[in-house]
Amino acid sequence: MTPASPHDGVVGFYLARPQLTAAAGFEKGKNYTVLIKATVDSVSAITAHTFQIEAEVDANVVSGTVATVTNLTNLPTMPTDWLTASGLKADAVTEIQNGLALEATLTAMKGAGWTDETLVAIKAALDAIDLSGVAAAVWAAAVRTLTQSAASVVAVVSGSDITCQRGDSLSISLTDVGALTGYSKVYFTVKRDYDDADTAAIIQIEKTAGLKYINGAAGTPANGSLTIDDEATGNITIALDEVETAKLDPGVYVYDVQVVRAAGTVSTLTEGVFNVSADVTRATT
Description:
Elements: E1 31-40, E2 43-52, E3 61-62, E4 65-66, H1 90-97, H2 103-110, H3 119-127, H4 134-140, E5 157-158, E6 162-165, E7 170-174, E8 183-191, E9 203-206, E10 210-214, E11 217-218, E12 224-230, E13 235-240, H5 242-245, E14 251-261, E15 266-277
Parallel strand pairs: 5-15, 6-15
Antiparallel strand pairs: 1-2, 3-4, 7-13, 8-9, 8-14, 9-10, 10-11, 12-13, 14-15
C-alpha cells in the first residue's frame, strides 16, 4: 500500500489516507506496519508506524456508505430475562392484551357454583353417562292417561256447533265440558258478537236463575233451564221453550259455557257456533 504523492521533491508536511478493505486482505485484530520514507536536506530516512485494526473490514463498506442488509447472521443469544414487563411500553401491553379473554369474562362464562372443573373432567363425566337403555325403556313404557285436577286449572274444551230450529223446543246435551265441582253459578250464553254485554245476549240461561235474557230483553226464568247431569265430568243439559226460540232471528251466533266457583274463580269450559235456522211452520201450540 504505497499511494503516489503529487508532492515528490517538495519540502513540507503531507497527509496520506490509505483505504483499508477486506479485498486487500486486511482483517480485524491483526497488526500492520506503515513505513514512511522522507528525504530532508539530502538525508533520506525511513520511519515505521505499527497499528492494529480494531473494527471488522467489510466489503459492504464503500466510501463511508453501508449497503442494504437483508440478513443478520452471527447475532448473540438474547440473555435470560432481558425483555421484562417494566421494559415494555404501556401501549405495547395493551396491544398484546387486545382480544384476549379477561379473567372477569372467563369467570362469567363459568357461571355461579363453578369450582375446579376442567373441560377434560366435564367430558369424562358426560362420557360416563350410560344412555344405552334409555331408548328401549321409553318404547317399553306402558301407555298412561294423563289427568288434571279441575279445581286448579280448567282446560278450555273446543265445543261443537249447535243448531237451533226457530219455533221448536230446544234441548241441548253437552258432555265432558269440564268438572263443575265447587260451582256457584253456571252460564250458557249466546251473542251476536263477543264484545256484546250480557244484557244484550240473544240467549242467557243460568243454572240457579233460569232464562235471564232473550233477544236483549229480560226473559221468563221458567222458560229456560240449565241442568247439571254429572258434576264431576261436566255433563249438562240446556233447555229453552218453543215460545222463546220463536223470537230468535235466523243467523249465526257464538256461545259459551262459563262457570263461577264459590272460591271466586271464573272459567270458560266450552265455546262454539250457535246457528238459528228458520222454520216453515210457525205453530207454537
